[in-house]
Write a structure and sequence with these properties.
Helices cover 22% and strands 22% of the residues. It is α+β, with helices and mostly antiparallel strands.
Amino acid sequence: MQPLRCSECSAQVLVAKNSWEHTSIQWDAAARALCHEIDNDAPDDGRLGAPSRGCHALSASIVDAANRGDIVVTDSDPVPTPIVVD
């Protein structure tokens, strides 16, 4: 995981960009306190301290960082379309 600061609120999180479609984000209490979008008061979903929704500004910051090469995209190949059998 790589550290990344949000361009809007400067919250620093850890990010792993496994593919263009899959991103893992690790929040800490300081980042949650700075973020303007994370709902810290939402009902617990079973994971201690897990924010219940994402942040559009952070998502944009991650994409920008990946496009610049600041965040490594582990597998840059597109995820293949699933084959659905009826």
